[in-house]
């Protein structure tokens, strides 16, 4: 499947609109890896990521008629997945509130080692560490660093102030680095 | 990228983007269950089709009965009939995309039109859909087909009930034109179904057959085309100029299957669908020769994995099947035999492997061995063939007739060349003994022995 080939994408979308399972599967299969990676970043556990992923795809197939070929299909699916993750975050916000306060502020790891620091860690391990962040840190980090949301957009989506979004981002990075260092130490 | 990411953020982003997840068939199966289309159409699609068809048949029978009875009754005045027809025709024209005037005119001109409405609607919908596909490259998809069938059947029902209404009030004798319309029907070609064998895996021969009804004349040229959607490679495209096509894909992926008639602007697309060709777990087998010299020639075969539902072994032109991966066979004599294993999987796919199997080969004293180590390139080296097929640790010693060691090796790739230690003096023509051992995984040594004759040089 070549997502840059307009004819192929049109055929795919039309197939999905007419609810043809073959095309639905084709889309699902081709975006499986990328979308699963997105869902992992927004979820606490792999099972939750999996649920987000499946739920997201159900929305994709429900809404596929609305895809208007402005921009890439992958980008569109990606937005639905991210929006679904945000919806999920909003719904569970109150449940998270307690765990939020328990986050301890930690010393900042030296910025200079960060480059070497990431070398020793695999993408999957890093994903697991992102999952260990608190829900709001995880969400802000993913939205800003991975999914190109501005602080203003994050503030609006999550119902927080722009300042909070910024400070959450920096705290999330601090915590992530701490987790990475711990992981590397344990490996040794 | 919208945000100005710091170097550190970029590093994190790039690393996280490297994460990949392997597609799991089970995930798709679980999701497919939750999609509304699947449950609805698979449960009710056929039933709806059937119900609509039944309604239609009942209606026709009813109309025919009514015709007989109402004929004797008083017909309503002509004016009312025309009005009724106009009403019907407008509705008809809306559904059939004919101009109302034209439809009304036709209806008024030809009293038989009532019975032909159904025919028109059918033909038109087919034509329209065919045109649509040709121009806009729209796909005929299974669900769409069902949809269409249902809508046309529902339309038919709607029309028929209208017909029923009109006919009960006024019937003209010329309405008995069912036969005629059937004969018109025969002249058009109907795509009925496509049969694609289920063994949709790499290396499997997949058969496609399109079922077409209606009278076909010699000018009707059908084409079945299969092409890979991801790569435009001739080796991944097939086409036939009739209604059957067999192809053997060597690459997994999605393939488009298209049934068309005619060429150029006259081309009609009858069917299009995408099928998925999956990768296959390549089968393989190992074997153990259980035979000993001068005794039976039993070989134990074992397929490398037991995913398959059925294992079929082709040996000396006969087929033997086993439900599990293990299979024993007794050969009639020693020799090298080609054995083929066909492993069938639950999805209908098969994987095949063929290889030579040496049975008690080097132990048979009746086989005259040609060993002429004269450097002419023919039979200059000696290494029992059977060992070349084995993967166990190997050791072989060659003895003279008097029991002196002439050559030793630990590699099946280092055969004896007829000289002392492969470098000294060339041995005289005559009989020599070889002893070999294979050491299996448990460290057990299995001895083999045989003889070799150096022929007159």
What labels would you give this structure?
heterodimer, A: 188 residues, mainly alpha, 9 helices, B: 457 residues, alpha+beta, Immunoglobulin-like, four-stranded antiparallel beta sheet, 28% strand, elongated
Structure description:
The complex is a heterodimer of chains A (188) and B (457). Chain A is an all-alpha fold and 188 residues long. Chain A has helices spanning 6-17, 21-42, 46-63, 73-101, 114-119, 123-132, 135-146, 151-158, 162-187. In chain A, helix 3 (46-63) packs across helix 4 (73-101), helix 7 (135-146) packs across helix 9 (162-187) and helix 8 crosses helix 9 (162-187). Chain A is globular, with a radius of gyration of 18 Å. In chain A, 39% of the residues are buried. The model of chain A is unreliable at 97-112 (pLDDT under 50). Chain B is of the alpha+beta class and 457 residues long. Chain B has 4 domains: 11-134, no CATH class; 188-277, Immunoglobulins (Immunoglobulin-like), CATH 2.60.40.10; 285-359, Immunoglobulin-like (Sandwich), CATH 2.60.40; 370-454, Sandwich (Immunoglobulin-like). In chain B, 33% of the residues lie in helices and 28% in strands. A 4-stranded antiparallel β-sheet of chain B has the order 4-3-6-7. In chain B, strands 11-10-13-14 form a 4-stranded antiparallel β-sheet, with no helix packed on it. Chain B is elongated, with a radius of gyration of 38 Å. Chains A and B meet through helix 1, helix 2, helix 3, helix 5 and helix 6 of A and helix 1, helix 2, helix 3, helix 7 and strand 7 of B.
